[in-house]
Amino acid sequence: MPIKAALFDLDGVIVDTAKYHYLAWQRLAKELGFVFTEKDNERLKGVSRMRSLEILLEVGGLTGKFSEQEMNDMAARKNDWYVAYISKMDESEILPGTVECLKGFRALGVKTALGSASKNAMLILNNLKLTPYFDAIIDGTKTSKAKPDPEVFLLGAKAVAIEPENCVVFEDAQAGIEAAKSAGMKAVAVGKPEDLKGYDRIIKGLFEVTPQEIINL
Ligand code: BG6
Ligand code: MG
Q1: What is the Rg, in whole angstroms, of the alpha carbon atoms belonging to the chain?
Q2: Nearest atom in ligand 1 to 117's CA
Q3: Which atom of ligand 1 lies closest to the CA of 120?
Q4: What is 18-86's CATH number, 3.40.640.10, 3.30.870.10, 1.10.150.240, 2.160.20.80?
Q5: How far is the CA of 45 from the centre of ligand 2 (A)?
Q6: Can the peptide bond before residue 148 be classed as cis, meaning omega within 30 degrees of 0?
Q7: What residues are in contact with ligand 1 under a 6 Å CB criterion?
Q8: What is the pLDDT along the chain (217 residues), one digit of tens a residue?
Q9: What's the CA angle centered on 178, arms 176 and 179, to 5 degrees?
Q10: CA–CA dist 186, 3 (Å, integer)
């Protein structure tokens, strides 16, 4: 099936925001009195904000110790710190190959869409000046189900009016690869083979592929 739409995850594919998420979660963990390591942070990739908080509390042995209100307040505080970091981002933080890839797909007549769990996606895309490269943007403000649910990618396909079987997804998180596959799409994993499974192709970064080789995946 020829590819007619390319859907991109944001965090970890287009930009390395994991380090900023980590700094903010680490600060919250410190306030709560425990250490949150970079290895622990790996578990938060592709995971929603509230689920990330649950995992963080689990690491600190604090599961079930807070009310819903307290959980919401903690997530909001973490987000304020995270937003302070990402507000300073600019084009220099776009990961290598991103712009060439987006332009290349469009040059072949392939639609481009963002499919991210983040509610901060617009702020990041605007700071990186990448918004005009997308025909559709589906982010955490438009979805109700987190990856591995296929919702985010199905909404992306619908927004560009392309059938799922003609879509390819670029994803760095296992939950995202599973979301793409259960949406009936091709999945290009961005990362290391030892961390990911179930993909159609794996690459280290968008710099490693040309749209031409992906459209016949
Ligand atoms: C995903 C990240 O893209 O977005 C997760 O990989 C993050 O780590 C999630 O928790 C939600 O992001 P935000 O910006 O809405 O807190
Ligand atoms: Mg990601």
Answers
A1: 17
A2: 4
A3: 14
A4: 1.10.150.240
A5: 6
A6: yes
A7: 10-11, 21, 44-49, 52, 79, 116-120, 140
A8: 699 999 999 999 999 999 999 999 999 999 999 999 998 998 898 889 999 999 999 999 999 999 999 999 999 999 999 999 999 999 999 999 999 999 999 999 999 999 999 999 999 999 999 999 999 999 999 999 999 999 999 999 999 999 999 999 999 999 999 999 999 999 999 999 998 999 999 999 999 999 999 998 8
A9: 60
A10: 9
- Does the pTM surpass 0.90? The reply is yes
> 100 alpha carbon to ligand 1 midpoint, in Å?
25
Q: Which ligand has the nearest atom to the CA of 196?
A: 2
Nearest-atom index, ligand 1, CA of 11: 3
**Could you tell me the CA-to-CA distances from 33 to 56, 57, 62, 64, 139 in Å, in that order?**
12, 11, 10, 16, 32
**What is the domain class of 5-16+91-215 according to CATH?**
alpha beta
User: Are both 5-16+91-215 and 18-86 of the same fold?
Assistant: no
- Residues in the chain, how many? 217
Domain boundaries, the chain: 5-16+91-215, 18-86
